[in-house]
Amino acid sequence: MARVVIGLSGGVDSSVAAYLLKQQGHDVIGLFMINWHDTTGTLEGDCPWHDDRVFAELVAKRLDIPLRVVDLSQQYRQRVVDYMFSEYERGRTPNPDVLCNREIKFDAFLKEALKLGADFVATGHYCRKAVETVDGKTIYKLLAGTDKNKDQSYFLCQLSQEQLRYAMFPVGDLIKPEVRRIAEEQHLATAKRKDSQGICFVGKVDLPVFLQQKLAARKGNIHEILPTWPKYAQRHGDDLATLAEPWHYTVRDGKKIGEHNGAHFYTIGQRKGLGIGGRKESLFIIATDVRENVIYVGEGDSHPGLYRRALKIMHDEVHWVNPTRRLVVGESCRFDVRIRYRQPLQKATLFMREDAAYILFDEPQRGIAAGQFAAWYDGDELVGSGAIYE
């Protein structure tokens, strides 16, 4: 029997995870995290953690497990929210949920759990862990969840071997309807509660309003680039650096069609929030220039400015979840890759070159944005990941 500290979030997944651990005979302690107090920009208009805490308390009482509360809001602001602000300010597209798992749930939270004598830390993530021995050394593998519709392994793509060593994912082998059924059978208060959405621990936000806490609004111009822009037809061949290069535009390449409130509030592939109508097809953002404060858009989902065959990751940003799969300069390997949560896995080749790592996709990819995480898989195993450089 192990002592397992579970992050009880007030949601159905962590509630059922706690129940399963108790059923398995573990000594289970619930730990509720307060990570955010500010309501600026949140669409609920209230701090969602208040309700979450009530539900966590009800579940802990029902399961007869102790519940502790820890305030990690200072660490969360410094290590997740400030990172978000700085990335958006640079015109990049961060993924706060990936950082939340690496920096908070499996670091700051883990440290609090160890103070309670934890042997393991459990969460309600839909993913799995496997353990194998390679050359006498224990290797922890991160596997996709059994429920392909809910698989959350992507959000854990930055975890280290040390973090995985302590991790337990009790619902990783279940599908969501089974989790709901167990919650109802056990009369858990969270059985019918909606899944949380939006930024990890902050909730659903109006992003420009949220970002204006730190980033000032600045009027700028929106320029449209036509699909007939000559440079689209000029890019071909198999040079990785060229194929991974983002499309660069100047105001002379298109005409002004509107205004915006700050290029740093927008991201590549976005179509909402532009306020320009009357088009046969939607307008999509194909580039942002935060220095000149210009947004470039193209009409239609098939606009060539939305697509690229390759992306670049700097060597110091390449992270091997499974270190035995590490590639060295000069090596390459076929993987299945995704660049955002819920994106179907894409066939690609990872190349380790002198200057950087490159991922070359079999098919052009829509909306590649700097700052996003690319995660590469071999079958069910998430092997590694990295923040997209450009």
List the helices and strands and how they pair.
Blueprint: E1 3-7, H1 12-23, E2 27-34, H2 49-63, E3 67-71, H3 73-89, H4 96-115, E4 120-122, E5 127-134, E6 137-144, H5 161-166, E7 167-168, H6 176-185, H7 207-211, E8 220-224, H8 230-234, H9 240-244, E9 255-260, E10 283-289, E11 294-299, E12 307-313, E13 318-320, E14 332-338, E15 346-352, E16 357-366, E17 373-378, E18 381-387
Parallel strand pairs: 1-2, 1-4, 2-3, 4-7, 8-11
Antiparallel strand pairs: 5-6, 6-18, 8-9, 10-11, 12-16, 13-18, 14-15, 14-17, 15-16, 17-18
Helix pairs in contact: 1-2, 1-6, 3-4
Account of the 3D structure:
The structure is a single chain. Strand 15 and strand 16 (357-366) form a beta hairpin. The mean pLDDT is 92. The protein has 390 residues and is α/β, with parallel strands linked by helices. Strands 5, 6, 12, 13, 14, 15, 16, 17 and 18 form a 9-stranded antiparallel beta sheet that branches. A 5-stranded parallel beta sheet has the order 3-2-1-4-7, with helices on both faces. Helix 3 packs antiparallel against helix 4. It has helices at 12-23, 49-63, 73-89, 96-115, 161-166, 176-185, 207-211, 230-234, 240-244, and strands spanning 3-7, 27-34, 67-71, 120-122, 127-134, 137-144, 167-168, 220-224, 255-260, 283-289, 294-299, 307-313, 318-320, 332-338, 346-352, 357-366, 373-378, 381-387. It starts with a strand and ends with a strand. The relative contact order is 0.13. The chain has 3 domains: 3-210, Rossmann fold; 212-304, Adenine nucleotide alpha hydrolases-like domains (SH3 type barrels, Roll); 307-387, Translation factors (Elongation Factor Tu (Ef-tu), domain 3, Beta Barrel). It contains 9 helices and 18 strands.
